[in-house]
Amino acid sequence: MTKTSANASTSANSKIRRSAGPLAKNSGGTKSGPQPKVGFVSLGCPKALVDSERIITKLRSEGYQIAGDYAGADVVVVNTCGFLDSAKQESLDAIGEAMASNGRVIVTGCFGVEESRIRAAHPGVLAVTGPHQYEQVVAAVHDAVPPLHDPYIDLVPPEGLRLTPRHYAYLKISEGCNNRCSFCIIPSLRGDLASRPANHVMIEAERLVSAGVKELLVISQDTSAYGLDLKYAESPWRGQPLKARFLDLCTALGDLGAWVRLHYVYPYPHVDDVIPLMADGKILPYLDIPFQHAAPSVLKAMRRPAAQEKTAERIRRWRHICPDLAIRSTFIVGFPGETEDDFNFLLQWLKEAKISRAGCFKYEAVDGAKANGLDGAVPEELKAERWHRFMAAQQDVSAELLAAKVGRTVDVLIDEVDDEGAIGRTPWDAPDIDGSVYLNGDTRAKPGDLVRTKILHSDDTDLWAERLV
Ligand code: SF4
């Protein structure tokens, strides 16, 4: 069976996700008739993916069809990523490809704030809008291809239209970020923290679960800061007030009966409060914490949130409460001023903290970021060398942690089935960014099934298991 989704070196924050073809299968079906068709290319992180889902949901609710290829589209929307210069270049390339293949292109997303650069490269684009400008994107589509009246437009499902498989969904709980990490320009693109009221999040989550979603992936820029901007305001949920507070939201989500996985969590002290929920099986024993580094001087230069916390010690305490806790993270090597000692400190910390999965980036300057003014640039060859050393160390940690799972009974959520068997994930693995479990020969499972298994074998990324019942 071919391995998929098992690359420990990728990161949700930077992974380019391009979806021009598969959209049609989750787009609520196709209808015969003259409705205009919109093609969609979605780049960047899961937060951008959720933006794409919202735009598509709105367009489908107005009767537009989603085209599966450029040739069949009346207009193409490209949702861009502007996180790194390499991501911007990838966005420009995607716009160029859509222009060459179709010629009627609307640009949106994080890179949309650099309209002049986009228009200089591709003067023929119809419109350029920035992140979260859903109404402007839809208005631009209206201008390009006016919607036709369709008496059946209300047939869009209440949970909206999604780009993910039916059995898992990203749940965005806030936009923006109050932090000012020196390498990042996201706050200038997406603004300060703006949390959704707790009952809005819960209504969406409940609809998703009612529609068959088995796993909710909670995302934002800073998940543990949820509700700070709302002063933890209460809103009514199931006849009771629910506070817009990290712990309260996690508790309520844990009552929905789906897997709940937390992404983009910073290790603020109140994160300690959700660890018992993990130990009790209410939410998954999994934290995605983008540490970026471990050496104090580098964290200080990065201006990372919660950098002053003694995280290795906290992680030990968390594991005392919830021994099964898996931590995935992302790191940057070659940040300006990073010394050999700093880097060795990071490698040692990685082993002590037992980080299950990690993505690693070689530091890249981003236009407009404060870090560009820092001294001590690390040569590219040294960055590359450190990246290889980091990945080798991480593979050793991962292999050791996975080997310790052999012989255990584990619930696996099935993602794919073909005539060779099934591929799924454990509670310790998120889709796309972590590892897989292979159930060779098990062809009776269906995507979305939760299967009790015994782990038989491991390597440095994945597990192999057999069904128990
Ligand atoms: S926490 Fe830092 S890296 Fe993350 S979005 Fe906010 S400023 Fe950027």
What bound compounds does this protein have? iron/sulfur cluster
Q: Helix coverage percent of residues?
A: 25-40%
| Number of β-strand runs | 20
Low-confidence stretches: 1-32
* Helix/strand structural class: alpha/beta
Oligomer state equals single chain
Which outline best applies? globular
- Whole-angstrom Rg: 22 Å
Count of helical regions: 12
Sheet with the most strands, sense and barrel status: 5 strands, parallel
Terminal CA distance reads 22 Å
Strands ordered across the widest β-sheet: 2-1-3-4-5
Proportion of β residues? 15-25%
Notes on the protein architecture:
This protein has 12 helices and 20 strands. It has 469 residues and is α/β, with parallel strands linked by helices. The strands form 6 sheets. Strands 2-1-3-4-5 form a 5-stranded parallel sheet, sandwiched between helices. The protein has a 5-stranded mixed barrel with strand order 16-17-18-20-19. A 3-stranded parallel sheet has the order 6-9-12. A hairpin with a 2-residue loop joins strand 16 (409-418) and strand 17 (421-425). The protein is globular and about 60 Å long. Mean pLDDT is 86; it is low at 1-32.
Describe the SSE topology:
Layout: E1 37-42, H1 46-61, E2 65-66, E3 75-80, H2 85-101, E4 105-109, H3 115-121, E5 127-128, H4 134-144, E6 168-172, E7 174-175, H5 186-190, E8 194-195, H6 198-210, E9 215-219, E10 234-237, E11 240-243, H7 246-254, E12 259-262, H8 275-279, E13 286-288, H9 296-302, H10 311-321, E14 326-333, H11 340-353, E15 357-362, H12 380-403, E16 409-418, E17 421-425, E18 437-440, E19 450-458, E20 463-467
Parallel strand pairs: 1-2, 1-3, 3-4, 4-5, 6-9, 9-12, 13-14, 14-15, 18-20
Antiparallel strand pairs: 7-8, 10-11, 16-17, 16-19, 17-18, 19-20
Bound molecules: iron/sulfur cluster (SF4).
Iron/sulfur cluster is lined by residues 177, 179-181, 184, 186-187, 221-222, 305.
